[in-house]
Amino acid sequence: xxxxxxxxxxxxxxxxxxxxxxxxxxxxxxxxxxxxxxxxxxxxxxxxxxxxxxxxxxxxxxxxxxxxxxxxxxxxxxxxxxxxxxxxxxxxxxxxxxxxxxxxxxxxxxxxxxxxxxxxxxxxxxxxxxxxxxxxxxxxxxxxxxxxxxxxxxxxxxxxxxxxxxxx
Length: 168
Hints:
Blueprint: H1 2-7, H2 11-16, H3 21-41, H4 49-59, H5 63-78, H6 92-105, E1 113-116, E2 130-133, H7 134-152, E3 156-160, E4 163-167
Antiparallel strand pairs: 1-2, 3-4
C-alpha cells in the first residue's frame, strides 16, 4: 500500500492516514527502505523518498527518527563527489543543516542527539555507530558557513606537493 500511494502521487493521502502502531511501524520500515535505496543511488530522485519519510516520522512525533534520515541525507551531500566543487551559493546543504538542527531541537532539551549508523558507500566499512549531538551539528553548520564565506571572498586552500596551504 505504501509503495502504491507514493507511485500514484498520493503521498498527502498516505501521510494523513490514521495508522495503528503496528501499521505505522510497517509503513515506516517500507519508507525507510525506499529512502535509503533512493539516497544510495546517488542520482537526483524523481521522488524525494527521504522527505516523505521525514514527513511521516515528524507527523508521528518521531523527531529523532526524522533526524536520522536527515543525517543520512546530509552525510551523502557532504561526502558526495561534488561537495568540494559545490557552488557556494547552492543552498541545498545549508537547508539540510538547518532542517536537521530544528528537528533535533524538537526532541527536547538535552535530548537533541541521534545514533548514526555507518552509511554504505560513504563511510569506511569498519566504522561503528556514532553519537551525533545537536551541538556538533551546529558546529558543522557554522564551519560550512565559514567555508562558503571564504569561497565567496576568494579565500580557499590550495593543495600542492602534498602540503595544504591557505591563501588569503
